[in-house]
Each structure stands twice: as C-alpha cells, then as structure tokens.
Amino acid sequence: MIRVALPEHLRTLARITGEVQLDVRGDVTQRSVLDALEARHPMLRGTIRDQVTLRRRAYVRFFACEQDLSNELPDATLPDAVAIGAEPFRILGAMAGG
Amino acid sequence: MSGVRILVGTRKGAFVLTSDAKRGRWEVAGPHFAGWEVFHVKGSPSDPNRLYASQSSSWFGQLIQRSSDGGKTWEPVGNQFVYDGVPGTHLWYDGTPHPWEFARVWHLEPSLTDPDTVYAGVEDAALFRSSDGGWTWQELPGLRACSGSAWQPGAGGMCLHTILLDPAHPGRIFIAISSAGAFRSDDAGKTWRPINRGLRSEQIPNPTAEVGHCVHRIAMHPSRPNVLFMQKHWDVMRSDDAGESWREVSGNLPSDFGFPIEVHAHEPDTIYVVPIKSDSEHYPPDGKLRVYRSRTGGNEWEALTKGLPQSDCYVNVLRDAMAVDALDPCGVYFGTSGGQVYASADAGDCWAPIVRDLPPVLSVEVQTLA
Known about the structure:
The structure holds two protein chains of two kinds.
Chain A: E1 2-5, H1 8-14, E2 20-22, H2 30-40, E3 60-64, E4 67-68, H3 80-83, E5 89-93
Parallel strand pairs in A: 1-5
Antiparallel strand pairs in A: 1-2, 3-4, 3-5
Chain B: E1 3-10, E2 13-20, E3 27-32, E4 37-43, E5 51-57, E6 61-67, E7 75-76, E8 89-91, E9 97-99, E10 104-110, E11 118-123, E12 126-130, E13 138-139, H1 142-145, E14 159-165, E15 173-178, E16 181-185, E17 193-194, E18 215-220, E19 228-232, E20 236-239, E21 247-248, E22 261-263, E23 271-273, E24 291-294, E25 302-304, E26 322-324, E27 332-335, E28 341-344, E29 352-355, E30 361-369
Antiparallel strand pairs in B: 1-2, 1-30, 2-3, 4-5, 5-6, 6-7, 8-9, 10-11, 11-12, 12-13, 14-15, 15-16, 16-17, 18-19, 19-20, 20-21, 22-23, 23-24, 24-25, 26-27, 27-28, 28-29
C-alpha cells in the first residue's frame, strides 16, 4: 500500500482528511503513483501535473524519505520505503512568499 | 419574495452576499475555495441556481467549480483547456513569436437559454465552450485564426475578459481581449472579425490599427444589443451599430482611464464608469472614489459620491467588478482592490459598503432572484 500525503488545498479539493492509501501495480514510480491518485480522485487532474504533457506543475514539489524527488524522471523507481508504505510520498506546494 | 445574490470573486476565495429586495441587510457566506484566486463567478440566466466559478492558483492551476443550489455547495467539473490543433504563436512583449500557453480562465459566461452551456474566456486569449455543464471544454478556434498571430499581451497578460451574448441575434457573440481589441461573431463563434474601427490608441505604433487596442470592458443593454459601451485603456467609447464603428463619449470625465463599464437595468442610456487616474496609478483621481453616471449614453457625466470615501482613497475597481440588479430602482454594485463591496439601491445616488475587509475583489456579478 502506497501512502500519499497531499497539501491542504488538494485534500480540501478531494474532500479527504489524512493520507491517501493507494494500491499501485508494477513499478512504484511518480507516474504510477500519480496515475493511481488521479484515478481515485479525478478532481486532482491538472492540479499536480499538466493534463496533456503530464509534466509536474512548476510550483509543486515531491518529497519522500527527506529527499527532494521533484526533478527525478517520472518513471524512476521511488525509494523502497515508499514502495512498502513505510514512508509517505509527499506532494506539496513550493515555498512562496511576498 | 424577491431578492439579490451577489457573487464576489477575490484573490483568496469566493463570497456570496444575499439580501431581500430592500437591499439594506446582507448575509455574507464564504470564503468558498479559500486561499484560491477566484477570477469570476456567474449564474445561468435560465437557471439561477446553476453557478460556475473559475478557481485558480499559481501552485495547482485552474479548476472550474459548479453549483446547482445557488452557491451553497459546489463540485469541481472539467478543467482541461486544450487549444485546438497546433496553437502556433502570438507576439511576445519584445515582438518575437511566443507559443500560446493556457494560464487561467478570466470570465465565464453561461448561455442565455441552456444552463449546461457556458463560455470561458481564457489567458492566453481564446474562447472555449462547454455544452455539458462544464465537464468538457472545446475551443472555438476561429477566433484565434482571426489575426491571433499578431496579438500581443498587455501588462496584465493576454486575456479574453468580456463575452456578450446577443439576445436578439442568436449566434452573435461579442468578445474583447487585452490587448487585441473587440471581435464579433455572427455564426455562434465559428468565424470572427475585429470590430475596432474608431478606436484610437496612442500606445501602439499605428493608433488606428485594426487590432492591438487594449479594450478593458464592453457592456450592452439586452433590449438594445446594437448599442455597445466600451471602457478602453484610455477613452470611453460607444457604438450604435454592433461594433462596426465607435465614437468617443468620455465627455467631462475627470479621467477616461478605467476598467469597468455597466448599463442601468431599465434605462439603456444610463451608464456607469469608475474613473482611475492613469494606467500607472491605478487609483481614483484626487483620492476620491467616485462612480460617474451618464444618463445620456455618454458625454455628459455626473459624479456619484454619497457614501463613498472622498479623501485618502487609493483603491482600484477591476473590469469584472461592477454589476447591476434588475430591481426597481436599479441596484448598482462594485468591489475594490481594498476588499470593499459597495452597493447602491437607488441607481447610484447613495452608496454603502456591504463588506469592507474582503481580500482584493476581482469580480462582482449580481443575480436578481424571483
């Protein structure tokens, strides 16, 4: 079971509290996790990655196991701790102020 | 009992303000979509409980929300806005070609007759339509085919911000783009042509060019759709022939720069603007917030000040942030960059704030409820 932690605005949009738990078949990658997340919560389509190019939105970040995975390739395998559900795959909005 | 519902879009969410027909006591609901920019919220003329909202953020992009109960509850619908075919380029600020890129929905215009049909004006400028209640969106590409490669953004981006559906001529649509100008379709959006003859803009190399004018807003009275009123970057303009030609009606305004323009619900020659000092000083002249009303379709204007701050006021009123109700006397409403929403229940003679401390107001629409 993959655990996904969403930022508050996307939890509100998806009408969920806490983490999302997903079954992901095959390799556990950014793409397979996001595919499963969007299949479960279609209203999140377009909010994390572009609907056509599937590229990460510029101000969205992917963290896991205290690493910034935002610029990893979409089909790169995520850390084992994410794949076995020991650590969440964290999706968050980039820091911005002013 | 009749009443009024005001739909307010702000930098940090949407608010719904309601009152009975006296328009003296208001209930404030919201924020809906808290923390998100809400560029526009508008109700269907054929089903007042059907509302559409444009919700966006720099982080998470564009969403469209739909309500079927007058704004009490909302559901996200389709948010995939894909330009038709290979979108090509428009001009960038430096004059070089720049690919068309979707940024956000500025304006939503529900059909006059079908609550499931709604138009969306977007940045980079294009017109989309949904005929399934917002679930899917298709571009009307004939608009960009009409000189789009020569369009260039203004300081606020290249947005399609005005959509007017002609109630007397089915298939006739007017739109306006900053900073390309005004355009008209007579075949439900298949083909378009610029309608900018008579506009003069000193900020472009050819001041009377066919396209390139920074139109800020166009307004129409539904009983007289061939008469259009325009607030341009500078100049208030009028057309009596459905946009074929325009003439200036700025008259005695203290400044003819501004953003919104609106028409009285029952008097087609009574119009309202909010003069702003200049394009670099987006606040009212002399620190006095004044709505100007013309009862002669332009040229002769009177300042409406009662109840509005007349000193130290430096707010702006954006293009979609003014609206009227259809009660008698006509109510007039506008929102400011300072978070106030002002209301007049007597056609502009007297004003009072409904709320004073919302986030900066991006849009105000009014529904008159039976």
